[in-house]
Amino acid sequence: MSEQWLWSSRVRPVVDGSGSLSKNVVDRASFSGRFTDSLFRNSRIQLPTSLALVLIMVLISPGREAQAQVTAKQILQAYSPRQKDVDYEVPTAADLEKCQVTVERLGKVSGYVVLGAQGQLLRRFMDTNGDNKVDQWRYYNHGIEVYRDIDSNFNEKPDQFRYVNLGGSRWGIDQNEDGKVDSWKSISAAEVSREAIKAMTTGDFGLLETLLINPADLRTLGVNAALQKKMLDNVSQPEAKVRQIFSKSRDFTPKSVWVRFDALMPGSIPADDGKAETDLQVYENAMCIVDNGGGKTALIQLGELVRVGDAWKLTQIPEPIGSDSITVAGGVLMQPLLASAESAAPSVSPEMQALLDKLQKLDASSATLAATPEAMSKFNSARIELLLQIVNATTSEDDKEQWMQQLADGYAAAIQTGQGGDSLDRLKDMETKLKKDSAASPLVPYVTYRRMLAQYSVEMNTANEAKRADIQKAWLESLEGFITTYPNSEDASEAMLQLAITEEFNGRIKEAVAWYSKLAAAQPQSIAGKRAAGAVTRIQLNGQPLKLSGTLLEGGSFNVSQLKGKAVLVVYWATWCQPCAADLPQIRALYEQYRAQGFEIVGVCLDVDTSPQDVNKFRVENKMRWPQIYERGGLESPAAVQLGVITLPTMILTDRAGRVVNRGATVQDLKTTLPQILK
């Protein structure tokens, strides 16, 4: 027998726009020769010898049907990724029999392709160097590759684990080929936080060490000797430190589960700052949120993360922010180096500098809305007291104005938590004093508007149902009064938007359109103005052609015109939206019932900052098998701004001609209308 594969030139698989392998271009492969069973040597499940022999019989039987045929089912049941956390598609028992296996050749690359029941890609097992041995095992989810095991030295043992597309960006190196990551070629800061929590809660200290800064990393970055020592001290003895953390903490335990990464944008430290020989990219004080079950979450302080090549590294062992204190420990890299006497800035007093340093550290460890209300309240209180000290210590009027704006925001934020104490009274006192002493100051409308918002929030939260209508009426009147008194203030546009939204909610459409139009005309380039213009378009949609475009969750662009000739339902939703989730079972049922008749759905996810991976996970878990537009930003994202969406869920239904038949459809509306427009 020949020592080479003789592949037929007639095998030309083509991937269509959905990620599926087009069956109509996959022809019969005529080939002969030797094929080893290396394809199956790296399976977690030991492949029966009989399956490998059957495969050989198929491959050496050109031009005719083999006596025995290996099935896609056998291959699918024999293989799984080396890493256990891969979210990839596994066919149901009913679909297994419908899956197919075929062969492909793309230049010098050749191998097996497994197709699902709907023709979607499930697996690719490839020989990339032409030695007749599989060296890449690729796994797909909904036709999109999410992970691959790689045998980079071609010894039939995977030594690299790479997550791609919606699977993430991790690329792990396994030097001793034992199935565990020894180092990272690439990993994002968010993925570092997830891997760190997993390593700590499972006791995998080998994994944890791959995420910590090490001497080789610091030499690569050229960090100065004094900082190197501090950073290495922070990550020393990780196992002992983790055990100590778990022994003392009630907020972080081995049962905690990572939820999400939380940080501001990374900063850049230039080389001429004297901290390193190269520019550094650093997250000053990142955090993540963990779920402890029973609806309880906790904040974990990750500290500084620094980028080394394409991998981010931790510079301290993650620690919980305790329920009885706020951690304000700063990292090493973002701390100021001591300035010389000649270069010291004389304009900032030692007292002010100390206060600014405290505020910087506090903000770096800020509690977020995902934390407990108690933690948020404690953070707000601590920040307010610091800001009061800074305002009193500030001598520059311009600086004082900026600090007073922050103080007003602090009071308003504290009130929003429902645990603001006397913050509303303090805000009112600030407003009264400003109007008396500095009536022309831009601080007056700034503080006034925040007092209005805070007061409305308190009154609505404490009032009974009978009084709420009067409170809302007073609120609308106060907004109109604010716009009249301070038409050129920064918050006038926000006040107009609040007025328009409230009028629309109350069914006063004519009044809503008037306010939306006024705002759109006054500030056409602002986000508020664009939202208002979009809202006018949305309100007037019935009978008009729908225009909608955006970026798809899996990448690529989408335009609703691509669905010409179909009745289309556009669903604006979010992963946190309970009414959206409640509608899903009925929407899925309608989709299955009418899809064959020309009904299509387009989802528009309006999460604020959820990762595409987590949105896709939600979509898969909830069987949302229709296209999804996702552009971060929530109600201020481009997809929401186009039509000024103000509430979720919002559903817009078009007929086959692309004209809107219902701009605010309900599930019951769909049940009534779909049979009519699909006739």
TrEMBL record:
Residues 517-679 form the Thioredoxin domain. One of its GO terms (molecular function) is oxidoreductase activity. It comes from Planctopirus hydrillae. This is Thioredoxin domain-containing protein. CDD domains: TlpA_like_family. GO terms for biological process: response to stress. SUPFAM superfamilies: Thioredoxin-like (SSF52833). The lineage of its organism: Bacteria, Pseudomonadati, Planctomycetota, Planctomycetia, Planctomycetales.
